[in-house]
Amino acid sequence: MSAPERAVFQGARLGRPLLQLALVVLTTLTLLWGVELLRRQDPFLRTRANIPPDLQNLELYLERPTLTLRDGARPLATLQIDALEIERNRVHWRAKRLRQATLYDKQGRALGTAHADELLYNFPAKRLYIAGNPTLTIRRHPLGDFPLTVHTAWVNWDLRAQQIRIEQPIRLHWQEGHGTIQKLRWDLASGTIELERGAFRVSHTLTQERAPSKRKVDIEWDWAQLRSDYSEGKGLRLRDGDTSAFAERAQVYDRKQYAVATGTLRLEDPRIDIEGAKLEIWYAENQKRALLQQNIRMRIKPRKTEPPPEGEGESELEQAKRYPIDATCDQIEYLYRRKVAYLRGNIRAVQQLADGRTRTLVADEAEYDQKAEQLILRGKVIVDEPDRVRLEMPLAIVSLVEGAEDVMTPQGVRGVFYYSDEEEEETPTNGTR
């Protein structure tokens, strides 16, 4: 090959990469121009170019959709919302104005509904955060057969665990009452509701002879767990008018219609204070019964009596009303349909009287009829007032009717009366005092 031919060949070899580069650049520019031309002609791409900057990172934007959340074939909830925004990474779904969410149980039955202004769904974690004045209506719950409405700041709904959690103050209301709770956990699978530091006010309509009246009962607790057939609570406090009660622990078995409270138990009202360690209640329609036992203590408080007229002395019965009575026994059974209470085992009542005197009553059994205002003492009944009198009888019937109090001993009485020599000297000649 001659020298000129070699020079041309080498020049061609050097120019080939430059030519290839130029072709690549030209092809790229042609493709970009074609894409832009298509973009201008495609209405969907033209719309995307006009999307506001705050929506540029969205994968999808829907208006007024209805969504069904499922666990396999089983529906968990149905959501009706005004607008849905799904991010490009599909991690967060944001909804504007949750018009209604319907929640379902395992059998596909509606448990309740929810409304809110905002909703955020974390897709990987399967969690719903409901905010913006959310309102939750629970229609099937262990508290009873009535809708329960919940108001709070936000609701955390874990779809995987099938739980709704609220960990800030909650307001509740229903037809017969309202209340507040600090924390709530609702297990949708089992229907269990767990409540912490709650307070309820419940209204009851009482049918009386003249006209029905409303009674409000305040209930507070430190912790409670409610199920369809079994519920339990700790630190329970109840106030019904001027009557208050406290229970350290309590369990309620709805199917058996039975409840038991244990630990420190206390009941206080203007007439009597009662303490015990175990209280059982049967509340079926054919068995209205309560049984209190273990470490029972009672204080019967003095009545407020009018002073005697000027110049007249006060009878011993009126004096006794002004002093409290402390009593103990082994067991108290109360049939609250009949309004009858039975006291059994080691009944002992002590009353501190004037001038340091003490009166003691002992009996084997006692029956208190609330309607008849009558107390019946049976067994070995002893009334002992040291240095004054000691009486024994097998039966004593005490009338507690205001102004007509008396004691009857139909089976007789025997006893000893004590008196000093001074009292004997003061006795009149006719033998009367």
Considering the chains and any ligands shown, give keywords for the structure.
4 helices; lipopolysaccharide transport protein A fold; mainly beta; 2 domains; 433 residues
Any idea what the radius of gyration is?
A: 41 Å
> Percent of residues in beta strands?
over 45%
| CATH topology value of the largest domain | lipopolysaccharide transport protein A fold
CATH architecture identity of the largest domain: Sandwich
Q: For the largest sheet, list the strands in their spatial order.
A: 5-6-9-10-12-11-8-7
Shape: rod-shaped
The CATH superfamily of the largest domain is identified as Lipopolysaccharide (LPS) transport protein A like domain
For the termini, the CA-CA separation is 167 Å
| Total strands | 26
| Main sheet properties | 8 strands, antiparallel, barrel
Range of helix content: 10-25%
- Overall structural class, as computed from helix and strand content, comes to mainly beta
CATH class of the largest domain: Mainly Beta
The structural domain count equals 2
Q: Helix count, per DSSP?
A: 4
> What number is the mean pLDDT?
80
Summarize this structure briefly:
The chain is mainly beta. It contains four helices and 26 strands.
Protein topology:
Blueprint: H1 3-41, H2 43-49, E1 58-63, E2 66-71, E3 74-87, E4 92-104, E5 110-122, E6 127-131, E7 135-138, E8 148-151, E9 154-158, E10 163-166, E11 170-174, E12 177-187, E13 193-206, E14 213-226, E15 230-240, E16 243-253, E17 258-268, E18 272-284, E19 287-300, H3 316-321, E20 325-335, E21 340-352, E22 358-369, E23 374-385, E24 389-399, E25 406-408, E26 414-417, H4 421-426
Antiparallel strand pairs: 1-3, 2-3, 3-4, 4-5, 5-6, 5-7, 6-9, 7-8, 8-11, 9-10, 10-12, 11-12, 12-13, 13-14, 14-15, 15-16, 16-17, 17-18, 18-19, 19-20, 20-21, 21-22, 22-23, 23-24, 24-25, 24-26
